[in-house]
Amino acid sequence: MALTLVPPGARKNRFWLARGRTPHGVVSVSTGCIDRREAQAWLRLHAAEIYAEAAAKQAVKTAAAATPAPAADGVRRFAEAVEGYAAQRHIDLSRSVTLPRGVSGASMRWHDQRTPAQRDETRRLLRLRAALGDKPLTEVVWDDLVRLGRSALPGRTNATINREIVTPARAVLHYAAKNRWCHAPQLALLKTPKPGLRCISPEGEARLLAGTNVFKERLLLLWLFRTGMRIEDTLQRVCWDDPARPGERLGIDLKSRVVRTRIGKTQEVGEFELADELVAALSTIAPAERCGKLFSWGNQQNVNRWLHPLRTRVGVHFTPHMARHTVGARLANNGAALATSMAVLGHRTAASSLRYQGISKSTVRAAVNALAPAATDAGAAVA
Mean pLDDT across the stretch 178-199? Predict the structure, then answer.
């Protein structure tokens, strides 16, 4: 069955969808186009790649359904556990994908639909398989992981070694234990210092905002400091609201003074209030330019090209995620309730917001002093 185009709004979609049944299952891919002719041209260009993507996904699912067979000597190796775990997680460990005829190598960037987190997980599993693949599962010990971390990541912190080596190795061994290939692993993480709150002072914020004359650069900094949104969500998901667009209403609504956007970590739609200062800055943008994404940098690497020289010029250490910590700490110090912080930061659990609740000593001192009753109450109590 050939792929067909589904118009916006038919399935609560913002763009035309390329949808149909392939030999490897049903596929539904957003064209990213609002105009029908542009969607048709996009489909003609990418149809072969859509079929290739469906074939690759089906190959991974088929591998997930099959349990790796033990080696000839009957001993389960660590590599088998890595491959079984990857198949269960629908992770393709092959370094290259065989594309069908008609798909050029120049289109491989589009063909790789993995998220950055999936690519990182693939890289970590490949490293573990290359270093410990031949080792029997029953002989993998904690010292093997520490040695691998020290040799593969020289000079890196324990937190990095935990993230890159120990944590994925524990996940692989837990998978093997569930299949009764080995006993449940008793592998502790390397000791790391308690994560601290990374905030920026009001003076540092003012110096950053005053250090650039480019409107969009200052707007991005102001957006981060007034919304606390993650940099990835800000660059990739914040767009202008289009009342004429059918389906799900997402974007900046200056009339309601809110922005509705999908949160990358949870894939849920959240509605966030816009501060007066931010509304005033957004209102200066011409109505003809209020379409599409608010920012055009695409990713943090492009932002860093001007942010690093800016922070060096003004003498302030700053990363975009520090603005999120700063927002959480200021809310706590201003007496905002935990539920308010959760609403501002878009958290689903209180534990997530508590990580950003940096209470200053002056706030604690004021709260302790406030415990003293009023003078009249104290006199009545003594009498």
Answer: 83
